[in-house]
Amino acid sequence: SPCSSSGVSSSSSSGLGADAGLEIRTRSVEQTLVPLVSQITTLINHKDKPKRSDKTLQAIQRVGQAVNLAVGRFVTVGEAIANENHELKEEMSIACIEARRAGETIAQLTDVASLDHPESDSHITIFTDKTGVVKAARLLLSSVTKVLVLADRIVIKQIITSRNKVLATMEQLEKVSSFQEFVQIFSQFGNEMVEFAHLTGDRQNDLKDEKKKARMAASRAVLEKCTMMLLTASKTCLRHPDCESARINKDGVFHRMRLALEQVIEIVTDSRPNGENEMAPISIYSGIKEFKNKVEGLRENLYFLSKENLSTMLEVILEHTEDFTDSAYTSHEHREHILELSKQAKMELEQLVSVWMQAQNQKTKDLMEDLEVAILKTCQCMNELKREVHSAATSLAADLLKYHTDHMVLKALKITGVEGNLEAVAEYTCKLSEQKDQLVEMCRLLRHVSGTEPLEITCIHAEDTFQVTGPQIISAAETLALHPSSKIAKENLEVFCEAWESQLSDMSLLLREINDVFEGRRGEKRVYLSLPRPGKHNANLKALKPVRLDTEEQAKIAKLGLELHLLTSDVDSETEKWEDQENEIVQHGQGMSSMAYSMYLFTRGEGLLKTTQDLFHQAEIFATEGTKLASALHALSDQVHDDDKPLLLLEAEKLISMCKQLQITAKASAQGKSATFTKVDACILKTRNVMTLLCQLLPLCCKLLRKSKAGNGCLKPAPPWKEGRIQTGTNARAPERRVDTFGIKSLENHVTNMTFLESK
């Protein structure tokens, strides 16, 4: 869900428009409306030919009926949501009634296929009352949008409820005094964090506003890293209750997690504490871009802004260049060039203003040519300034990242801490503080040249991470030096050091991204994060370094990943229809769907599967689960009628063959970047094929089982809209699942059913 608050004004040439007072902030709501708008537009924009074929009349009638049927199913889901959420019941019920009424009106007006003269006044139809269709269409679009936006409010409520549970458990964790109690509560906390991560991950992906999406990614990255820190910092505090540095270390983690949780809620609810407005920091890049737009706008209009406006804009840009010229880390050469270009920019603007003022009084050909030259020279100077600050920031970043790549200070802190050498630890903590200051300054300068708002936010997040993690490493090192034989204090220092190393690694990726944007190769930001991993809190984190597909590879595999995602939804939908949820076939199906969803998230650079090796391991487990399902199918074949047995056994053999091929692919060796990506692509493709077969198998098995039970049935009605339905996989890695608790997906599916006649 990315969150630009574009109002719900989906419109067409027919004058369609939804209620402008509603605000759509998520892609899921927006995209659910697209097929509906398309179908209605098809009806309203039909060509008014004097002669209409039977085929045309039948197509119009079928579209009208399809719209009405899909709206009917859609409304049924909306009414179920209303019954489960009393605070929205009245609003939701009204919107559902309006939608149903509008759908029926459209069906009546398009009931033309059986009429001899559909344009006759004796029967009101789409041909005789086009205004009536437009009115019904407006009402339908507005009411469906209301239902979707209200359902979306329930998703927000669920995220807030989940956050509140996490906060309450965190308070308990802060107060515990025994290991036994801590372990028990932390287990609960881990489950709550996984639920919160799933909900916020879905929300992040669905937000329309890229800036909010980046802020959400940053907050979730903090929560991911802090989950492990909270565990080791709390254990260290419990082991050494009288140690002041251990307490400071733990308090820092809790404080940072609370801030991150608060920011997530601010983004989700689109609010700020005490009603304050968010002040976005101005970067040199964005300032130059806006300044140039204004200058170039003078070609079209000499009077749309004042010379004071333009002068103020340049002053702000030049003030920001002082971040570079005042920095101790900017080279002498860069500093001199920036100062020279700043001086030149002022001169070029003076010349521009002089010609501009003359042109306002006397618009001669010569003056307009002079103005064009002044505009070009001013913009060229700003481009050179932009290039110079970019070079200063990125060359500093490259040098610092190269210099600190050996992590010598961190290694020395670990060694001197285990030795209990307080004097040496104090010496290296000073060096780490210096390193922190350098990296913080690097992030500030990179923010000015990042080129996009999401990348700016990533720079701010990186700056905060270095600012906070540096002192936390120092307190963890001091604790170890005071208790050199403490295994938990040693593990705690390791965790904070790894967070620092991980952020440095992310900075290398970010620097490459910033250079790509500058050179025009890419404008989208990759999100460097994954979901928390409670239950995996071992000390062997080095084996789990995040190595993901790069942006280009993600783009190549995106379509395949999306197909896999849709198939997981289909499988989930089929398994929910079974009355016996403990049935072995259902259990295996749910487990396979859960794993396939994790593999889909990997294609997006998200989720628990961090490396290609994780993906291959998951593919093996998926194939094993598929083989177990095939065994269950063989067992079912003994219960069904003889006529049905060959078909079931044939499908089981197909499944076994596909799973064997997937296992062979997953186990095959692959050397090099290209070969590894080819293997990833093959694994996802073969997983998709298995899931396609699974979508066919589940309804077949249910039908055969029902037939064999002679009417007892294995189907059940759709589950009520309850909060907190969390599915878990059956495999040991417990991949996360996107939980469609409040039915946005169901609403989407019902509206999507309208698309089958879109081309008519």
From TrEMBL:
<dbReference type="InterPro" id="IPR036723">
    <property type="entry name" value="Alpha-catenin/vinculin-like_sf"/>
</dbReference>
<dbReference type="GO" id="GO:0045296">
    <property type="term" value="F:cadherin binding"/>
</dbReference>
<dbReference type="GO" id="GO:0007155">
    <property type="term" value="P:cell adhesion"/>
</dbReference>
<dbReference type="GO" id="GO:0051015">
    <property type="term" value="F:actin filament binding"/>
</dbReference>
<dbReference type="InterPro" id="IPR030045">
    <property type="entry name" value="CTNNAL1"/>
</dbReference>
<dbReference type="Pfam" id="PF01044">
    <property type="entry name" value="Vinculin"/>
</dbReference>
<dbReference type="GO" id="GO:0005737">
    <property type="term" value="C:cytoplasm"/>
</dbReference>
<protein>
    <recommendedName>
        <fullName>Alpha-catulin</fullName>
    </recommendedName>
</protein>
<dbReference type="InterPro" id="IPR006077">
    <property type="entry name" value="Vinculin/catenin"/>
</dbReference>
<dbReference type="GO" id="GO:0007266">
    <property type="term" value="P:Rho protein signal transduction"/>
</dbReference>
<comment type="similarity">
    <text>Belongs to the vinculin/alpha-catenin family.</text>
</comment>
<dbReference type="InterPro" id="IPR001033">
    <property type="entry name" value="Alpha_catenin"/>
</dbReference>
<keyword id="KW-0963">Cytoplasm</keyword>
